[in-house]
Amino acid sequence: MAVYALTGFSLVSLLSFGYLSWDWMKPSLVADVATDPMEKSLPPAFARPPHIIFILTDDQGYHDVGYHGSDIQTPTLDRLAAEGVKLENYYIQPICTPSRSQLITGRYQIHTGLQHSIIRPRQPNCLPLDQVTLPQKLQEAGYSTHMVGKWHLGFYKKECLPTRRGFDTFLGSLTGNVDYYTYDNCDGPGVCGYDLHEGEDVAWDQSGKYSTFLYAQRVSKILASHSPKEPIFIYVAFQAVHTPLQSPKEYIYRYRSMGNVARRKYAAMVTCMDEAVKNITWALKKYGYYDNSVIVFSTDNGGQTFSGGSNWPLRGRKGTYWEGGVRGIGFVHSPLIKHKRRTSWALVHITDWYPTLVSLARGNLSNVPGLDGYNVWPAISEGKESPRTEILHNIDPLYNHAKYGSLQDGFGIWNTAVQASIRVGEWKLLTGDPGYSDWIPPQTLTNFPGSWWNLERLTDGLRKSVWLFNITADPYERYDLSDQRPDVVRTLLMRLVHYNQTAIPVRYPAENPRAHPDFNGGAWGPWASEDDVEEWEGIREPLKSRNKKKKCKICKLRSFFRKLNTRLMSNRI
């Protein structure tokens, strides 16, 4: 029987959370807009394809939204969700690239070869070019398509860029994380470069602008220059709230009472992002789009508890297959929804947005067979039953095998040392090493790492390689039923076997030194020639050869000299 230990945590600390007193109706610091568009909007007839705004946030924890009881202020998200449909049985992937690839293709990772880790800056790898993307399908349906924010689906050759994968315009970063002001990204000691792009060009002139502000302003500019009579799709992939923890001081000041510094900065970033969403919504109203629009909000993975995020009361964190890594914040806000102001418990996965949005756009799905996603609009809008009954969270054959897993433990049909997870109906199965498994309440105390770690720890189970939970009855994954229900374990293992038979080989090539930004004018960008492609594609890097990413000091120097140069130039002018 599992033994639980409660360390440095009390119920009082959770109940003591309160909202900070500030007026969310004051003019935003992101942009100046005079009126609130959400006050008087009449639901129109669903007469023409709707405008679609898909907002994806980065590393926002399950607990880190006001309507989930957070101490972080998100009044805009709370209001949009309350007036729309909250998705409380919504699943994403545990890390960046997998969630984005599944959103864009409507397919599980095992069907794109991206089932292991993320696409790293120096890898000759990207979203497979034979995949028809969501924006490409929307273009076919007559939509203008735009992307603002983080791509993270590969860029080693120009064919991989957002503007070659279905987006008419693009402003954002190609790699996984950049400085919010300087847009520098270091992928190891001395391997640093600038990463902000306008279309297929480097946007050097935008350096110094806080990315959350910049991206919200760009969305407003796109809406202002487009006609609301023509359908538009805007994919807003905020960098926020991924590390580095950076925010304008005025937002940090609002959380000055928070003792934990990381949580304070993180909270400021979440609130800043919330205001950016408010301004995007205002722009939709101001320029005449709102009444025929669908706004989808989603996180990309669980929060990183090391960096101020919280997934409480779920188990685990970003990078794990526990609920804290894969259960996301999600909601849909639209005047077109038939049954609004409710919470939906319909099972929804991030792959479902592809067929759902293409169907809303009246696009053609007949030429993209084999999608793993489902059209869930009837479940969202009308409260009908979800067509989805199971989710393959992933099968990763390259992840470090669990020490105590074996084929014998998997009834001779599955090697339980392999990292995999699946949900079928109310049951969830995990095999291999699912990742860090503690329950971590919100970080409210000051010291690090001591009292900062208010965690409830499972002290046994370290020699296990199979877990089974009734996720409907036990959403916090506290009661492992694998020993009591071997029949269910075997059934779910058979489903893993089935999915594994449909998997394509993993695409995880070795890093190439030619990707170094110094060979590309100091910026990250396409670097491979056509002659190189066949040689590199499909090659995977041995696990033992991967070096740990070290903190890059040259980025700080490069940022310093860039700021100094900007200041000197401004003095000349």
Overall average pLDDT:
86
Strand order, biggest sheet? 10-9-6-5-11-2-12-13-3-14
| Ends distance | 72 Å
Low-confidence stretches: 1-45, 445-454, 538-558, 560-573
Measured on Cα atoms, how large is the radius of gyration?
23 Å
Quick one: overall form? Answer: globular
Family: Belongs to the sulfatase family.
Organism: Burhinus bistriatus
Pfam families: Sulfatase
GO molecular function, one term: metal ion binding
Could you explain how this protein is built, in words?
InterPro entries: Alkaline_phosphatase_core_sf, ARSB, Sulfatase_CS, Sulfatase_N. This protein is α/β, with parallel strands linked by helices. The chain folds into two domains: 49-388 and 511-541, 3-Layer(aba) Sandwich (Alkaline Phosphatase, subunit A); 390-439 and 460-506, Arylsulfatase, C-terminal domain (2-Layer Sandwich), CATH 3.30.1120.10. It is 24% helix and 15% strand. It has helices at 11-15, 75-83, 96-105, 134-140, 211-225, 249-253, 261-286, 323-326, 353-360, 377-381, 486-502, 530-536, 554-572, and strands spanning 4-7, 51-57, 85-87, 90-91, 144-150, 169-173, 184-186, 192-194, 197-198, 201-202, 232-237, 293-299, 330-333, 342-344, 348-349, 390-396, 419-424, 427-431, 455-458, 466-470. The strands form five sheets. A ten-stranded mixed beta sheet has the order 10-9-6-5-11-2-12-13-3-14, with helices on both faces.
Short summary:
InterPro entries: Alkaline_phosphatase_core_sf, ARSB, Sulfatase_CS, Sulfatase_N. The protein is an alpha/beta fold. It has helices at residues 11-15, 75-83, 96-105, 134-140, 211-225, 249-253, 261-286, 323-326, 353-360, 377-381, 486-502, 530-536, 554-572; strands at 4-7, 51-57, 85-87, 90-91, 144-150, 169-173, 184-186, 192-194, 197-198, 201-202, 232-237, 293-299, 330-333, 342-344, 348-349, 390-396, 419-424, 427-431, 455-458, 466-470.
